[in-house]
User: Fold this.
Amino acid sequence: MKSKIITIAGALGSGKSSTAKRIALKLGYRHFSSGDLFRAIAKERGLSIEEINKVAELESEIDHAVDERLREMGKESELVIDSRMAYHWMPDSFKVFLDLESHAAAERIFNHIKKEGRVSQEAESVEQLLRSTAERQASEKKRYWNLYQVDVEDLSPFDLVVDTGPVPLEGVADIVVGKYKEWLAQ
Assistant:
Protein backbone atom coordinates (compact mmCIF):
# COMPACT_ATOMS: atom_id res chain seq x y z
CA MET A 1 0.00 0.00 0.00
CA LYS A 2 1.28 3.45 -0.90
CA SER A 3 1.97 6.14 1.66
CA LYS A 4 -0.78 8.72 2.15
CA ILE A 5 1.79 11.46 2.48
CA ILE A 6 2.41 14.19 -0.08
CA THR A 7 5.77 15.94 0.14
CA ILE A 8 6.11 19.27 -1.62
CA ALA A 9 9.53 20.72 -2.38
CA GLY A 10 10.34 23.51 -4.74
CA ALA A 11 11.92 26.78 -5.62
CA LEU A 12 11.81 29.60 -3.09
CA GLY A 13 8.58 31.55 -3.64
CA SER A 14 7.01 28.84 -5.81
CA GLY A 15 4.02 28.51 -3.49
CA LYS A 16 4.96 25.41 -1.51
CA SER A 17 3.18 26.40 1.71
CA SER A 18 0.09 27.88 0.03
CA THR A 19 -0.25 24.85 -2.23
CA ALA A 20 0.34 22.37 0.60
CA LYS A 21 -2.28 24.07 2.78
CA ARG A 22 -4.81 24.02 -0.06
CA ILE A 23 -4.14 20.36 -0.87
CA ALA A 24 -4.43 19.38 2.80
CA LEU A 25 -7.77 21.18 2.97
CA LYS A 26 -9.06 19.49 -0.20
CA LEU A 27 -8.05 16.03 1.02
CA GLY A 28 -8.83 16.50 4.72
CA TYR A 29 -5.18 15.84 5.53
CA ARG A 30 -2.97 17.55 8.10
CA HIS A 31 -0.40 20.12 6.94
CA PHE A 32 3.14 20.74 8.19
CA SER A 33 5.67 23.30 6.97
CA SER A 34 9.35 22.82 7.75
CA GLY A 35 9.88 26.36 6.42
CA ASP A 36 7.66 27.67 9.22
CA LEU A 37 9.69 25.62 11.70
CA PHE A 38 12.95 27.01 10.27
CA ARG A 39 11.58 30.58 10.48
CA ALA A 40 10.58 29.98 14.10
CA ILE A 41 14.14 28.84 14.87
CA ALA A 42 15.43 32.01 13.20
CA LYS A 43 13.04 34.16 15.21
CA GLU A 44 14.05 32.47 18.49
CA ARG A 45 17.67 33.35 17.71
CA GLY A 46 16.81 36.90 16.58
CA LEU A 47 17.98 36.16 13.03
CA SER A 48 16.57 36.62 9.54
CA ILE A 49 15.85 33.58 7.39
CA GLU A 50 18.97 34.38 5.35
CA GLU A 51 21.11 34.64 8.51
CA ILE A 52 19.83 31.34 9.97
CA ASN A 53 20.75 29.63 6.69
CA LYS A 54 24.32 30.87 7.03
CA VAL A 55 24.43 29.76 10.69
CA ALA A 56 23.08 26.34 9.66
CA GLU A 57 26.08 25.95 7.34
CA LEU A 58 28.23 25.91 10.49
CA GLU A 59 25.77 24.34 12.94
CA SER A 60 24.49 21.15 11.33
CA GLU A 61 22.37 20.37 14.39
CA ILE A 62 19.81 22.91 13.10
CA ASP A 63 19.15 20.86 9.96
CA HIS A 64 19.42 17.60 11.87
CA ALA A 65 16.68 18.71 14.29
CA VAL A 66 14.33 19.66 11.46
CA ASP A 67 15.14 16.49 9.53
CA GLU A 68 14.60 14.28 12.58
CA ARG A 69 11.13 15.78 12.95
CA LEU A 70 10.46 15.01 9.29
CA ARG A 71 11.65 11.40 9.63
CA GLU A 72 9.28 10.92 12.58
CA MET A 73 6.41 12.39 10.57
CA GLY A 74 7.10 9.81 7.85
CA LYS A 75 5.42 7.25 10.11
CA GLU A 76 2.14 9.18 9.91
CA SER A 77 -0.60 9.12 7.29
CA GLU A 78 -2.86 11.64 5.59
CA LEU A 79 -0.28 14.38 5.73
CA VAL A 80 0.92 17.12 3.35
CA ILE A 81 4.39 18.47 4.07
CA ASP A 82 6.09 21.41 2.41
CA SER A 83 9.80 21.01 2.89
CA ARG A 84 12.95 21.01 0.79
CA MET A 85 14.05 17.62 2.15
CA ALA A 86 10.90 15.72 3.19
CA TYR A 87 10.86 13.82 -0.12
CA HIS A 88 14.32 12.50 0.74
CA TRP A 89 13.26 11.28 4.19
CA MET A 90 9.95 9.89 2.91
CA PRO A 91 10.78 8.04 -0.31
CA ASP A 92 7.37 6.32 -0.34
CA SER A 93 5.51 9.63 -0.36
CA PHE A 94 3.99 11.27 -3.44
CA LYS A 95 6.83 13.66 -4.25
CA VAL A 96 5.99 17.02 -5.84
CA PHE A 97 8.35 19.79 -6.96
CA LEU A 98 6.96 23.28 -7.58
CA ASP A 99 9.06 25.37 -9.93
CA LEU A 100 9.04 29.11 -10.60
CA GLU A 101 11.35 31.49 -12.42
CA SER A 102 13.48 33.45 -9.91
CA HIS A 103 12.26 36.99 -10.70
CA ALA A 104 8.60 35.91 -10.49
CA ALA A 105 9.41 34.16 -7.21
CA ALA A 106 11.05 37.29 -5.78
CA GLU A 107 7.99 39.35 -6.77
CA ARG A 108 5.68 36.85 -5.02
CA ILE A 109 7.76 36.85 -1.85
CA PHE A 110 8.00 40.66 -1.87
CA ASN A 111 4.23 41.04 -2.27
CA HIS A 112 3.66 38.53 0.54
CA ILE A 113 6.02 40.42 2.85
CA LYS A 114 4.34 43.75 2.06
CA LYS A 115 0.79 42.37 2.34
CA GLU A 116 0.97 39.96 5.28
CA GLY A 117 4.51 40.06 6.60
CA ARG A 118 6.74 37.05 6.92
CA VAL A 119 8.43 35.75 10.04
CA SER A 120 12.16 36.54 10.02
CA GLN A 121 12.15 37.96 6.51
CA GLU A 122 12.04 41.54 5.29
CA ALA A 123 12.90 43.27 2.04
CA GLU A 124 12.96 46.78 0.63
CA SER A 125 12.74 45.74 -3.02
CA VAL A 126 12.30 42.84 -5.42
CA GLU A 127 15.96 43.24 -6.43
CA GLN A 128 17.06 42.84 -2.80
CA LEU A 129 14.96 39.68 -2.58
CA LEU A 130 16.49 38.34 -5.79
CA ARG A 131 19.95 38.68 -4.23
CA SER A 132 18.99 37.27 -0.83
CA THR A 133 17.03 34.42 -2.43
CA ALA A 134 20.03 33.48 -4.59
CA GLU A 135 22.23 33.48 -1.48
CA ARG A 136 19.71 31.35 0.40
CA GLN A 137 19.45 28.87 -2.48
CA ALA A 138 23.24 28.58 -2.66
CA SER A 139 23.42 28.06 1.10
CA GLU A 140 20.77 25.34 1.06
CA LYS A 141 22.32 23.61 -1.93
CA LYS A 142 25.71 23.56 -0.20
CA ARG A 143 24.28 22.41 3.16
CA TYR A 144 22.17 19.58 1.81
CA TRP A 145 25.02 18.32 -0.35
CA ASN A 146 27.49 18.45 2.54
CA LEU A 147 25.07 16.86 5.01
CA TYR A 148 23.35 14.25 2.84
CA GLN A 149 24.93 14.27 -0.65
CA VAL A 150 21.55 15.39 -2.02
CA ASP A 151 21.50 17.69 -5.03
CA VAL A 152 18.39 19.82 -4.45
CA GLU A 153 18.38 20.80 -8.13
CA ASP A 154 17.99 17.17 -9.29
CA LEU A 155 14.30 16.70 -10.16
CA SER A 156 14.53 12.98 -10.97
CA PRO A 157 13.23 11.80 -7.55
CA PHE A 158 9.91 13.62 -8.01
CA ASP A 159 6.65 12.06 -9.17
CA LEU A 160 5.35 15.42 -10.41
CA VAL A 161 6.92 18.77 -11.36
CA VAL A 162 4.63 21.80 -11.77
CA ASP A 163 5.59 25.26 -13.03
CA THR A 164 3.48 27.50 -10.79
CA GLY A 165 4.09 30.64 -12.85
CA PRO A 166 1.28 30.28 -15.39
CA VAL A 167 -1.12 28.38 -13.13
CA PRO A 168 -3.10 29.96 -10.26
CA LEU A 169 -2.96 28.40 -6.79
CA GLU A 170 -6.28 26.56 -7.11
CA GLY A 171 -5.17 25.09 -10.44
CA VAL A 172 -1.86 23.91 -9.02
CA ALA A 173 -3.67 22.27 -6.09
CA ASP A 174 -6.11 20.58 -8.48
CA ILE A 175 -3.25 19.27 -10.64
CA VAL A 176 -1.44 17.83 -7.61
CA VAL A 177 -4.58 16.27 -6.10
CA GLY A 178 -5.56 14.72 -9.44
CA LYS A 179 -2.10 13.23 -10.05
CA TYR A 180 -1.89 12.06 -6.42
CA LYS A 181 -5.18 10.19 -6.73
CA GLU A 182 -3.96 8.57 -9.96
CA TRP A 183 -0.71 7.61 -8.20
CA LEU A 184 -2.61 6.06 -5.29
CA ALA A 185 -4.77 4.04 -7.68
CA GLN A 186 -1.79 2.53 -9.54
Remarks:
- The chain has a mean pLDDT of 88.
- Helices lie at 16-27, 34-44, 49-58, 61-73, 86-89, 102-116, 126-148, 169-185.
- The beta strands are 5-10, 30-33, 79-82, 94-99, 160-163.
